[in-house]
Amino acid sequence: MYNTISVVIFHFSWKMESDVWGSISDQGVVTHIRGGHFAPSSITINGWLRDFLWAQASHVIQSYGSSLSAYGLFFLGAHFVWAFSLMFLFSGCGYWQELIESIVWDHNK
Fold first, then answer.
1. For residue 45, is pLDDT > 70?
2. From CA 109, how far away is CA 102, in angstroms rounded?
3. How much of the chain is helix, strand and coil, in % rounded to 5?
């Protein structure tokens, strides 16, 4: 169920950004938030990863050399903590139980 909800949210967000949301210039040209790659790219997993999830990664990577480096590092750290917590969520046991057992095991090692 968790994955189904995630896929539906990603699908809706990407569809809206690439085909619906945008602005109209004075000449009548419609400019979408994203490049409009939804139709050819949404049928494969690689398309989802390349054109939706990783499309904006360059902004975070380029932030390291600017005054925004603290925000970029905070963003990456928060995503690491989020991904790390999902590992415990999908393991079948409780998050805190797994975390405590991992710390105790590492301490006794």
1. yes
2. 10
3. 70, 5, 25
The b-or-e profile of 18-56 (16+ CB within 10 A means b, else e) is beeeeeeeeeeeeeeebebbbeebbeeeebbeebbeebe
More confident residue, 4 or 96: 4
Residue reference for tokens 């380029």: 62
* pLDDT tens digits for range 61-91: 787 888 888 888 898 889 888 888 777 666 6
CA 109/CA 91 separation, integer angstroms:
22
Q: Which two tokens stand for residue 33?
A: 């938030």
- DSSP 8-state code for residue 70: H
Contact 78, 86 (CB under 8 A): no
- The answer to whether 45 and 39 are in contact (CB under 8 A) is no
